[in-house]
């Protein structure tokens, strides 16, 4: 990591940690049993243990952390030449906004727990992540070939046509994944929904890679 990048990376890391620190502070005061999925009449749809709250928060933290690793280490920004400083700044702003969104969103959910307003907790946790994935999916569909962000496989970087087709596919895939993740919050229990989201995360990460490989080799005949 270049020296002038260190303060920026530290800022993003702090955004990752703030919600978990906040949760650690209020954790002793959270009741053992917590009502979730409230109806419009203010009646909890079910009562769960506070360990389920912890599972949801870990899920949100890991989502934030995985996105950090994805955007921090792919591409290797340390190797970007100096003349790309404008792209570097734009790339950092994109990363910063993603992590700021998740930090604020997670902290808001924790605040609602802290004041005893766990209204639709499970639903909103998955809606927030699903919405982010869908927005990123739309963003993928607008990307032009570059060495900084997107589905940067050896085959998309070698062919503009493969880049465009792969990103169209990845865009649709991520948008659908976002909608499915949002639906998980409404129709599934926490543990099952988290498991489904992990599977979805693997699919949307691996499938565009495989697709670009197959498409490139098909085009090459």
TrEMBL record:
User: Start and end of every DUF1648 domain?
Assistant: 14-61
Query: Which segments cross the bilayer?
Result: 12-30, 53-75, 96-113, 125-143, 173-206
**Keyword Transmembrane recorded:** yes
Q: Give GO terms for biological process.
A: response to toxic substance
Give the UniProt keywords, A-Z: Membrane, Transmembrane, Transmembrane helix
PANTHER family reported in the protein's UniProt record: IMMUNITY PROTEIN SDPI
Protein's name according to its UniProt entry: Uncharacterized membrane protein
């Amino acid at each position: 990591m270049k020296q002038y990048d260190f303060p920026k990376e530290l800022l993003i890391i702090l955004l990752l940690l703030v919600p978990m620190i906040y949760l650690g502070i209020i954790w002793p005061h959270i009741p053992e049993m917590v009502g979730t999925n409230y109806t419009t009449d203010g009646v909890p749809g079910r009562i769960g243990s506070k360990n389920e709250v912890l599972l949801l928060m870990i899920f949100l933290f890991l989502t934030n952390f995985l996105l950090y690793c994805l955007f921090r280490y792919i591409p290797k920004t340390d190797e970007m030449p100096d003349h790309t400083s404008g792209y570097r700044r734009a790339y950092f702003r994109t990363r910063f906004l993603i992590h700021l969104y998740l930090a604020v969103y997670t902290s808001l959910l924790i605040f609602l727990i802290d004041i005893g307003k766990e209204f639709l907790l499970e639903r909103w946790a998955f809606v927030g992540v699903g919405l982010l994935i869908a927005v990123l999916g739309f963003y993928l569909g607008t990307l032009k070939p570059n060495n900084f962000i997107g589905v940067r496989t050896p085959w998309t970087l070698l062919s503009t046509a493969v880049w465009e087709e792969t990103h169209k596919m990845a865009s649709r895939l991520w948008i659908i994944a976002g909608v499915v993740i949002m639906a998980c919050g409404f129709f599934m229990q926490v543990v099952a929904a988290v498991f489904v989201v992990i599977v979805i995360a693997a699919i949307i990460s691996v499938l565009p890679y495989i697709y670009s490989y197959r498409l490139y080799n098909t085009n090459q005949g």
